[in-house]
Amino acid sequence: MTSYRIRATTLALALVAVLASACGGGDDAPEWTPPQTEQQTHALIQRVQLEPEDWGEKFKPSEDFYEHELTPWGKLDEECSWQDMRDEAPEQTGLQRLSGTATLDAFSQVLVHKEQATAEQWYAMSEGRSGECGTQDYGSVVFTEVRMRPLTLDGVDEGYAESGLFAADEGEEGSTLPKSPRRFATAMARKGPVIISVQLEGKRGRYTPEELNQHVDAAMATMIDRLIEQP
Question: Regarding beta strands 74-76 and 136-137, do their DSSP bridges make them parallel or antiparallel, or are they unpaired?
Answer without folding.
Answer: unpaired
